[in-house]
Amino acid sequence: MTRPSGFDERNARICLLLDVSPSLRLRDVAQDLGVTEMTLRRDAASGKAWFACQGGFLVRARSTDSYDFDEQMRRASEAKRLAADHAALLVPEGACVFLDTGTTLPHLARALACSGVRRIVTHCLTSAELLQGRTSVEVEFIGGRLQSRTRSCHPPDPLEVLKPMGIEIGFLSAGGLWDGRELSCSHHYEVAMKRAVIALASESWSVFDSSKVGARRDYRFAEIDEMSGVITEHGVGRRAVPLAKNG
User: For a Cys-Cys bond, which of 21, 154, 169, 187 suits 203, CB 3.0-4.6 Å?
Assistant: First the structure.
């Protein structure tokens, strides 16, 4: 795996990890990124980073110009964790599970790490890193062309790669749910993997926080009727969307 050597790449990678965990051990992050602890301390002190160094840990920066952004991400992160908790309840013992890329499904990866699933299949670097060394579940990482924006790998023919893996239940990210029926994403290269999972899995669910309801991204990947349903922080909707809490 190519290590992020530039500040912007390190900053983005660390912020994605902090979306899933509120703090990260400085020593572990430095080792994972292939840089020194001093490099990360300098990044944090630069005034440009979205993370801060507190003792031997990295946390979200709170006293910078990015405060509003961080606060918004904190709220979204809680919604994503709740959505992932709802999703985890749908996974049977011994299942083979596919986890898509995005910032919601790493929460589900963490929830499944100590579960009784048989195998987790993913092309998401964040989920793979979270699972590495932290689970006895078999993890299958799908290689291919690396897409930095979504921290995911994409093979030329996802259907052929996934077909022999016996995926039973798939969880897909979405950037928008338009008109209660159209699921979309922001990048064209995401579509083939999502379509392959929908075609192969016995169950396929889209998992996202409810801020995506009413949004429409550039690339449609499914109609709601093609899937088992959607999951937000408000619960599970079987081909119907829980938009928000009543009252």
Answer: 169
